[in-house]
């Protein structure tokens, strides 16, 4: 039987999730690249892009603007399954828009890594007014 939310494993994944969030809002590309599994099997479905493999994900991160990345998280839920797999889901508010994010995490020899992720808007931000 798979044990759900073992305290030590939940703490590890929560710490990895928080590290990812800090890297995301701080645009720390090296940490973001580190926390995604370095594999052609890794997926990230974003708001306007479908990225297949670590190389595409890293390329997207490198080309993305570092502006306007701060956000507020709501209703974050992390669930671990045994010692080596977890899912993290959260809602976020950024630039007046409301979105959601899901991540699948797996323990790899290098530590916890995101193996699949999805980001989408529930309510996109309003366009900025023209100057």
How would you briefly describe this protein structure?
With 131 residues, the protein is an alpha+beta fold.
Question: What do these coordinates show?
Answer:
This protein has helices at 7-25, 29-35, 54-63; strands spanning 43-45, 50-52, 72-81, 85-94, 97-108, 111-123. A hairpin with a 4-residue loop joins strand 1 (43-45) and strand 2 (50-52). The N and C termini lie far apart (60 Å). It has one domain (7-123): Nuclear Transport Factor 2, Chain: A (Roll). The mean pLDDT is 96. The protein is an alpha+beta fold. The longest helix has 19 residues, at 7-25. It has a 6-stranded mixed sheet. Helix content is 27%, strand content 39%. It contains 3 helices and 6 strands.
The biggest sheet amounts to: 6 strands, mixed
Number of helices: 3
What's the average pLDDT? Answer: 96
Strand line-up in the sheet with most strands: 2-1-6-5-4-3
Number of domains: 1
Question: Which regions contain 5 or more consecutive residues with pLDDT less than 50?
Answer: none
CA distance, first residue to last residue: 60 Å
Residues in β-strands, percent: 35-45%
Q: Which structural class is indicated by helix and strand composition? A: alpha+beta
Radius of gyration, whole Å = 15 Å
User: Residue share in helices?
Assistant: 25-40%
Report the CATH C-level class: Alpha Beta
């Amino acid at each position: 039987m798979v044990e759900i939310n073992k305290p030590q494993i939940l703490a590890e994944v929560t710490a990895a999730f928080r590290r990812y969030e800090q890297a995301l809002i701080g645009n720390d590309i090296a940490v973001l690249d580190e926390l995604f599994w370095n594999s052609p099997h890794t997926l990230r479905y974003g708001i306007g892009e479908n990225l297949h493999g670590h190389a595409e994900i890293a390329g997207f991160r490198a080309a993305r603007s570092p502006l306007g990345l701060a956000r507020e998280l709501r209703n974050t839920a992390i669930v671990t399954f045994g010692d080596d797999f977890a899912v993290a889901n959260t809602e976020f508010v950024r630039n007046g828009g409301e979105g959601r994010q899901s991540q699948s995490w797996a323990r790899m020899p290098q530590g916890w890594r995101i193996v699949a992720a999805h980001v989408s808007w529930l309510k996109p931000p309003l366009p900025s007014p023209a100057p």
